[in-house]
Design goal:
potassium (chains A, B); cell membrane (chains A, B); homodimer; TrkH (chains A, B); ion transport (chains A, B); 22 helices; two-stranded antiparallel sheet
Amino acid sequence: MSTINFKIVLHTLGMLLLFNGAFMIFPVVASYYYNESITLELTFSLIVTVFSGLFMMFSTRKHDKNIAQREGYLIVTLGWLFMVLTGMLPYVFTKMIPEFSNAFFETMSGYTTTGASILNDIEVMPNSILLWRSLTHWIGGMGIIVLTVAILPLFGIGGMQLFNAEAPGPGADKLKPRIADTAKRLWLIYFIYTVIEAILLKIAGMGYFDAVNHALSTLSTGGFSTKNDSVAFWNDSPMIQYIIILFMFLAGTNFVMSYFAFKFDFKKIWQNEEFRWFLSFILVFSSLTTLVIFFKADLDLNSIPHPRVIGEFESSIRHSFFQVLAVVTTTGFVTSDFTLWTPFLTILFFGLFFLGGSAGSTSGGIKVVRHVILIKNGFQEFRRVLHPNAILPVRYKGKSVDQKIVFTIQGFFILYALSFIIGAVVLASTGLDFETAIGGAASSLGNVGPAFGKLSPVDNFSGLTNFGKLWCSFLMLLGRLELFTVLIIFSPYFWRNR
Amino acid sequence: MSTINFKIVLHTLGMLLLFNGAFMIFPVVASYYYNESITLELTFSLIVTVFSGLFMMFSTRKHDKNIAQREGYLIVTLGWLFMVLTGMLPYVFTKMIPEFSNAFFETMSGYTTTGASILNDIEVMPNSILLWRSLTHWIGGMGIIVLTVAILPLFGIGGMQLFNAEAPGPGADKLKPRIADTAKRLWLIYFIYTVIEAILLKIAGMGYFDAVNHALSTLSTGGFSTKNDSVAFWNDSPMIQYIIILFMFLAGTNFVMSYFAFKFDFKKIWQNEEFRWFLSFILVFSSLTTLVIFFKADLDLNSIPHPRVIGEFESSIRHSFFQVLAVVTTTGFVTSDFTLWTPFLTILFFGLFFLGGSAGSTSGGIKVVRHVILIKNGFQEFRRVLHPNAILPVRYKGKSVDQKIVFTIQGFFILYALSFIIGAVVLASTGLDFETAIGGAASSLGNVGPAFGKLSPVDNFSGLTNFGKLWCSFLMLLGRLELFTVLIIFSPYFWRNR
Ligand SMILES: [K+]
Ligand SMILES: [K+]
């Protein structure tokens, strides 16, 4: 390793800002269209972002083309940070979220697709601002697809090599074109899904604007809504909620599966082990929740109205599937306050905060594939104790998994647990009680959104101290970039030249 | 592997019952001495236990001497269970704890050195019953020493091979005599420490009876007290509490270190890496707690009186060191309700519930050595990501640790986390709130004793449902026997003959 090629890092970051600024055209147009009198401020945000990007690119135009691992890490982490620092400008310049910590939190929550908010009244916000909020999710989701396709498998972070093996594209020998090609295919699916969901939501009775925003929030597993009550606003429209249930499921599924589906290759989907596990987890936990809600819980204890449009049982099924999917896919939409159902479901959902969706989706959390490998390895561990000399590898998708990958996944899990407990301790030091601190840390790290206690699905993060908001923002970034990508920059080995 | 030699398993269990029955002489004598009118019932417990043991031994006297791994696991887990089933007889026969679930819980809490209680008023109990309670701790502590010296390292459970390497005794080639020899040496230290602590406590002002009971509870890191307020009863006698602080520290230290100390080989102690880490953890966390208590917390918010005998600062130091040691060594004695100090300290202590003392001590939890290996491996993981082709082993005590051992320790940690979350979910299903369910599971699994919420240091476990009590008892056993030893019996591989 030689010294880090900072010029190419800055150059790439400049390109990202250009891209970010380009997306700001949408809120500018929205503000103009809805006559919101903040068009000038939004245009100014766009100009500042684009010019910052141009300046960074121009000042580093003479750069060495050499790009290696360390530059990659810097680009990913700093990239997210620079997106946030410019992406918060529309909030700050329009004075809709004037304080730094609030605007930073809301924007980080956007790009990391967490969906936690500090807004006490979402519905008073101008449409242009709400659209930008949803767009930060959608841009973040695009970033995650690149991260999963290109960065994590290449660098071997947390066992994501397992994902790379199944991504579609030209032969494995042509690595670079393959990655670009795969990313493009998956982006296309992401885009098509968003359009279809928006159309379906409109047909089901949502307004155009709400339909677009919720589609942007669903596919990115983000969770920002245009309503104070989130999707519970449509508790009298089961069809709307079933559409969101379907698209949350798709957003939590490996996009490569959708690629197979578009090619009518359903056999490949069914043969995919992670998909089967993901589906099973959803079905098992949703059915269990349905039974508990139907027999034990009173949905009306919620502060949210729960009209039984089709009947008691349908209501139990719908809210169970909705909230299980919202938590497992880490979307974080709310139709009902799951922390008020029963003590058992509260802790069960707390456990689900650590599950996560599939690798190759936009969901956060630990991810199904890692859990499956760890569970299988756990069973093997018992056999290994009984037969110390036998070689007993973990089998996944019909193949033996290299012990090194299992080792890396174990390391990832432990680092996740450690980040969670340190995250909770630091949050508690800002004065949060036990349940709130633990829930807030799990939710931020897993990019879920709602949490427990004073950060329940019907509350928001506005009551945190400034430091608390920044700390949660850090946890969101940490979880979103799969821990290592962020933490490695803080390690002395990273900066050592040799 | 052939079929399991059940006869030798039963024979050994019979010997354990004989041993258990022999210890019942102490409560019998105590009852007679204190004129407690339950001497007959206690004698009956002794007779039933001894005769059960004799019957089991006699009916299996013609047994094959062959003993292998699977018999070892059965003996350990069933051994603890049989000790509990006979050890609860004194409570049941004297009708002091008449219900099965309560008596089972209290006895399991005793032998697993957990120290959680279902007794609402400890001080109304006859001395003989209180002595038996403390003795169950002490017997359990002896069992743990054998487990650590003989079973865990041999079977390679959770990386305990690392412990075996440092145990004193004859050359490694003579394995069997070495194990017996090591166990005897460590038992002797355990016994001597108990006697010394009892004498010191008496000198410091405790009554004879209380001194003996607290010495039995300290060295086993058990935590049963003879007072409703636990050691807080002596909050006006700092000297008593400092003595207990010292012996909690010794009980949480590898007894092999004490063996070196008795041989005046202090260099070996200082060179021991786990000892240095254990000491550092205690000092860091206690100092931090001292500062927070002194500047932020109000000790008088406790329901327990906190006379400032020597002054405010001394009080902060004493309660900090006492509670940090009580939790880290998993003794669980109480001088102050740490869940009422500050939100930060509540979560910090929750984290400490997972730390544990040293390997080769009587403490529960995950243990310092495992954390150290995992933390070191975590740092190496960053270097491995940056240098994928370099071989970067974990170094412990100046030597490279076999990757297999690190792998096993990772597996142990993950299984511990899984047991904890399932433990909490099941506890919540009995109706416990978030904080209580999570705290109760962590405390039971780590054999700590007090927990959080409605199971705080000033509460007890009597409010749990019968199922809740049995579930906590299971978690105690699971944690005490280092997970694998218990769970392996439930695995189908265990019962497969081949
Ligand atoms: K989310
Ligand atoms: K204990």
